[in-house]
Request: fold
Amino acid sequence: MVDHLRQRWASDAVIYNAWLTIPSPWSAELLAAAGFPSLTIDLQHGLIDDPTALQILHTIDRRCPVFVRLAWNEPAAIMRALDRGAAGIIAPLITGPADAQALVAACRFPPEGIRSYGPVRVGVVYGVAEPAMVARLPFIMPMIETAGALDQLEAIAAVPGIDGLYVGPADLSLSLGLPVPVDFAAPPFRAALSRVVEVCRRHHLVAGIYASPEWAADLAALGFRFITIVNDSDLISRGAIAALQRVSG
Reply:
């Protein structure tokens, strides 16, 4: 399934993603059944813990690739997520090339990295157990969400082994002294997004971002190819509010 995403990105396709924050395999399965080509488990700000993340992977990772957004760029957490079958890793608060190098090292077996070999579940899910094959599976995306990361953007993008850069717009906006909710049209923020896309193109990386359906077409036109357009909590909240407003007039 990861290879299918890589093939689509190689043809310049846009992949739309849904974000999982609710600790339930059922809500995740509903989004997979809706047709999303990828999902992301949020272990940083969502309510999902490790055991529930494994249940979600069990439920849906044969339907579509499932990424994991880590709570932190921490080797043990990265290795657990990959051994359990995560298709990719999105690592938060990457500030420079050293952070990106540490991320890649945790995803790679020796001598290229420090990952411990034990593909208990990933070997079953993907039918491969050889270290070289297992190491090629995950799609690795450092997050760009600080002014410092923007300053180090070229150096981060040049780190061997990463596949894309993923913008965290709220933290990036705050770091640039801009408001939240994010104004995607604000010139300083727009300039930052354009720079991320430009650097990704130069380094043959996928540009990703957390956004909304309203901004998806605009961001795709700008050059983003991995766009998160919904999260499960917001879908329920907004749908409930809309239903109540409709019946209450």
Q: What stands out?
A: The chain is about 50% helix and 15% strand. The chain has a mean pLDDT of 95. Strands lie at 15-20, 38-42, 66-69, 88-91, 139-144, 164-167, 206-210, 226-231.
